[in-house]
Structure formats: C-alpha cells, structure tokens
Design brief:
- This protein is of the alpha/beta class.
- Helices cover about 35% and strands about 15% of the residues.
- It has a 10-stranded mixed beta sheet with strand order 1-2-3-4-5-6-7-8-9-10.
- A hairpin with an 8-residue loop joins β9 and β10.
- Bound molecules: pyridoxal-5'-phosphate (PLP) and iron/sulfur cluster.
- The site of pyridoxal-5'-phosphate has 9 residues, from β2 and β3.
C-alpha cells in the first residue's frame, strides 16, 4: 500500500480517483458540521444510528458554510425530525416487496424490470424511499448469473433498469460484466441506469467508466438524480459532455422536498441548469412516504401549484412530470 498516508483534506479541484473520494467521504455529522463551521447540535444521534451520514467532500464543498438551512445540507444531515413516528409513513412505501422476483429483480411495470444491483450509494439521502430496503435479502448480492436467469424468465421485457442503491458505485469490471450479459438477453432493446453518483461525485465519470458507457452495445439511458440547481456544476457538465456526444439519453429525476426545492424559482432554475448540460427533466416525484421522512413532505395541493407555476414559465420540454408511486398501479401516477 503506497498510499498509507491519506490526507484528510486536499485542495479543491485536485483530481482524485473516485474510489479514494468515496473512502474520504464524511461519515459523521460532527465532521461535516465542523467542515461547514456549524455547531454539532444540529445533528441527531437517533437519526444517525438508523441510517448513517455519508457525504463526499466534493458535495459538501457545494454547501454554504455557516448556513444551517443550506438545501444541500438538508438532504444529507440526520435530524431529530426523523425519529418521530408519523402516521402513514412506512418502511416499504412503494410496494417493492410484492414486485420482487428474486436476485434483486423488481418487475412492476410492463416491459421494464428494475435490478437492485447493490445496497451501496455514494451519498445517503435522508428522504430515500429505500432507506429501509432489505438489501441483504432482496438485493442482487453480486450474483449476475442469478440476475440474468431471473430476467430471462420474465415475459415481455424490452428494457432493464439498473438501480440500487446506486449502480455506479460498482467497479467498472463488475458493471461491464453486467452490461455485456444484459445486452445478450433476447428482446432487450435498451438499458437504463438510475444514478445519483455523478451529481455528488462527478469524478466517478472518469475515462474508464465513460468508455464503458459509450461502448455499451445497446442504446443507453442515464437518469440522474439532482434536486437543486446548485448540484449542477461545471465539473458535472464537463463529465456529461462525452456521454451526450456519444448519443446517450440523459434525463433527471428529482424529489420534491420541503426546504430543498419547494419553490418555483428553484425548480425552474434546476430545469434550466440541467438543460445547459444536455439533460432533460423527466420526473418530479412527490415524496414516497417512507418512515423518517415526513418532515420533507410537500402537500399534494402545493405540489400541483408548483407544477402549474413551472408549466406557466418554462417550455414544455423543461417541465418534469409530477408523479407519485402508488403500490399496485401499472405506472407512476400523475398527481
Ligand atoms: C420507477 C420504476 C420503474 C421505471 O418507471 P418509468 O416510468 O419507466 O420511469 C421501473 N420499475 C420499477 C420497479 C420502478 O420503481
Ligand atoms: S442515492 Fe438514491 S438510492 Fe442512494 S440514498 Fe440517495 S436516494 Fe437513496
């Protein structure tokens, strides 16, 4: 190990391997709050125990020091609000368990199956609808052959979605194995990747992964997850450009969150910034009612009003579809 001495901080902008950046991510509220010049009392131990903090330093660097209400900080900081029970907020709000076909495969919607490739992510989002997901039992656990066999037994699939967790925390070789095997499945016309990693760690889209994605034998759709315009940086734009040039479809899904993006100006600017780097807004999700996230919920009435405000000020292609997930429904439902 020639890198035994890893410095705990480094000059911003200095390139680092993505795996090193993952290893150097903040994993305690105290360390993140100290970095932001904020008092440690902002964080709640009960919430940290239930779902520990994880924040790459790059992403922390986008937050405003000294601002306890920073919209990026709010997405990742464990708060006491999470420990309060709220009626209707449950561990499996989206009915994932009943859609499980084994080996990490969820088949809910016609023609599309989703693979929970890993339980790991580059960041831990407090509102995550899979924060209680039983990855040990229902995830793929790295057995790609079991994934392929399970998908092959599902009738009528034309698209496979790699999700998680976050598929882009897998190593390139593991991803390459999976993409290659999926591309050989009869009937599959396109592959899709759902990922937040490039938003919190743009360096993940290094030359190796970029080549892997641009060489994918099937048409590829990458759906990013950014919630706030400040998450769309020059670094991210630079990393996305080669994907765009290679003809990969780039979309974004956001979650509507109190104190993060629940105003029309923020949502409009998010759409504008996404378009600046070749990404179209796809979905704006009404929060899935997962236990611990009640304080993020925007009322349906307000969600509709925000969506109308967006529709009134943006071209149609920059207005994401406002949807919610209803367990058992044949698709995501317009709100
Ligand atoms: C959201 C979701 C999809 C994708 O739905 P689209 O409307 O095609 O984006 C597919 N499978 C599962 C299990 C999902 O939760
Ligand atoms: S990156 Fe996605 S799957 Fe991972 S914690 Fe955030 S919302 Fe959940």
């Amino acid at each position: 190990m020639k890198d035994a001495m890893i410095p705990l901080s480094f000059p911003p902008g200095q390139p680092r391997g993505w795996q090193r950046q993952m290893a150097e991510a903040f994993c305690t509220p105290e360390a993140l709050l100290a970095f932001l010049d904020l008092p440690p009392e902002r964080a709640a131990g009960c919430a940290q125990q239930a779902f520990r903090l994880k924040v790459p330093r790059y992403y922390a660097g986008l937050m405003t020091p000294g601002d306890p209400n920073d919209p990026l900080l709010r997405q990742v900081l464990p708060l006491a609000d999470e420990c309060r029970q709220a009626p209707g907020f449950v561990t499996d709000p989206t009915g994932d368990q009943s859609a499980s076909r084994g080996a990490g495969v969820l088949h809910k919607y016609r023609g599309r199956a989703l693979v929970v490739t890993t339980g790991a992510c580059a960041v831990h989002c407090r509102y995550c609808f899979r924060r209680h997901f039983p990855y040990g039992e229902t995830g793929a656990r790295g057995d790609w052959q079991a994934v392929i066999d399970t998908l092959a037994a599902e009738p009528g699939l034309s698209e496979v979605i790699l999700s998680g967790g976050d598929p882009l925390v897998l190593e390139d070789t593991r991803l390459a194995e999976l993409l290659t095997a999926l591309a050989r499945l009869p009937g599959i016309r396109r592959l899709r990747i759902h990922t937040r990693t490039p938003v919190v760690l743009p360096d993940r889209l290094d030359d190796g992964l970029t080549r892997l994605l641009t060489d994918c034998p099937l048409p590829l759709v990458v759906v990013l997850h950014a919630n706030h315009p400040r998450e769309i940086t020059e670094e991210l734009a630079d990393r996305l450009r080669p994907l765009r040039r290679a003809g990969i479809t780039l979309l974004n899904q956001a979650v509507l969150l109190v104190g993060v993006n629940d105003d029309a100006d923020t949502l409009a600017e998010l759409s504008e910034r996404l378009h600046d780097c070749g990404v179209l807004p796809y979905y704006l999700h009404q929060l899935d009612r997962v236990a611990g996230a009640a304080h993020f919920e925007v009322s349906d009435q307000r969600a509709r009003a925000l969506h109308q405000a967006l529709t009134a000020r943006l071209p149609g292609y920059l207005v994401p579809r406002l949807v919610q997930e209803i367990p058992g429904a044949p698709s995501k439902q317009a709100l």
